[in-house]
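Entry
Fold in token form

___
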Amino acid sequence: MDNLRIFTDVDALMTALADYICDVADNSIRERGRFNFVLSGGGSPKRLYELLASEDYKNRIDWDKTYFFFGDERFVPENDAQRNSVMAEDALFKPLKIKAAQIFEVDTSGSPEEAAQKYAETIAAHFQDQPVEFDFNLLGLGDNSHTASLFPHTSILKESEATVKAVYVEEVDMYRITMTAPLINQSKHITFLVFGKGKAEAVFRVLEDKSGTANEYPARLITTDEKKVTWFLEEAAASDLKR
């Protein structure tokens, strides 16, 4: 597969991915005047965000023309430490002094369904009723092969509309708000960031294993178009791959 980039250690992985994001941002701003960047939550991307905000990278992207979205969010109160947006605020937005108008967070003040609908409407308004095609959509991969909040054996995996939905995830006993696979797949660039030996089986299940279904391994719902999707993997995470 030409879209696999495998690195010996996490530092090399993060540096290469930060460089890649800078290139995509530069091209997007040059061609369309702005960079629409979908952030991932969880522990893996925090180091990436801190790197982008560091002295080495903070001047390589025109942040005034960058707009931030979240591929998914935990349905918890606004300032709850579990929120993906709180982590991004500390690691990226505050250090770079990103204006509030450029950050599109999920409003969880109503019901989960209201939060999802409102976020879908917010995204549509930003794109001014043009097709919603994010310039860069960053994804992680759980050891159960979930990505965003597309968890195994959940109803949202059957969703065919490119939108945002609420889903109750029994595995974590929580509602999540998430972009559906069709919405993610409309992005111009989609990148998986995966490191650690604990993710090796999930990487194999998604990329090479022919058994099972997307209901068991939800990241298989993400397009395999190599012009769109790139996997940034540390060697340990790629260690179960046969090819």
Notes: The domain at 4-234 is CATH 3.40.50.1360 (Rossmann fold). Helices lie at 10-32, 46-52, 84-96, 112-126, 181-185, 200-207.
